[in-house]
Write a structure and sequence with these properties.
Elements lengths: L1 E4 L5 H11 L8 H9 L3 E8 L2 E11 L6 E9 L8 H15 L4 E6 L3 H9 L3 E6 L10 E6 L2 H9 L1
Parallel strand pairs: 4-5
Antiparallel strand pairs: 1-2, 2-3, 3-4, 5-7, 6-7
The structure holds coenzyme A (COA).
Amino acid sequence: MRFRELSLGDAPAVADLEAELFAGDGPWSRDVFAAEFAKPHTFYVGAFDGGELAGYAGLAMLGPRDDPEFEVHTIGVAPRHQGRGLGRALLDQLLHTADLLDGPVFLEVRTDNAPAIGLYESVGFFTLATRKGYYQPSGADAYSMMRRRKSEREGEQRQ
Ligand SMILES: CC(C)(COP(=O)(O)OP(=O)(O)OC[C@H]1O[C@@H](n2cnc3c(N)ncnc32)[C@H](O)[C@@H]1OP(=O)(O)O)[C@@H](O)C(=O)NCCC(=O)NCCS
């Protein structure tokens, strides 16, 4: 498996995998991904098995650079590659980026998505709130989750 930052030419493959993984929950189109990849404050990483996209994940930085916060935009692993550590490896890369700038990270996840919630909790996310009907057109509820900035997590460990 090879990891690299995603760019414009990857948008069709990412949108195809997104459509497979998020049907019913407003999957992003290739145009949306192309626009996201071009933004200066986003980081999208892909995992490739040979030439084939096996997984992808995206992070956005919000706020000022000296006190930023981050949002996990998306993370997905192709069904035949799931359950082998790839989702964790992709998420680790996003979180490493957020930790370098000592920012908290936020995300939304379907309340019935046990694998994703398990993954997020295992790296320090906790639930802030439930957002009713967040996903459209499915109408599924979401949890808003947060992971504290690195300096706060380390402070908690020392107490
Ligand atoms: C969520 C997702 C990205 C996880 O990727 P993955 O490569 O399958 O996950 P990993 O093999 O790295 O597993 C990481 C952790 O996730 C959790 N997990 C994974 N599969 C799980 C399952 N079936 N049930 C419960 N927890 C699970 C575990 O905590 C696991 O850690 P462990 O192996 O140390 O126990 C993947 O299932 C996926 O793409 N799902 C569809 C898209 C999606 O829902 N994305 C998240 C949107 S918020």
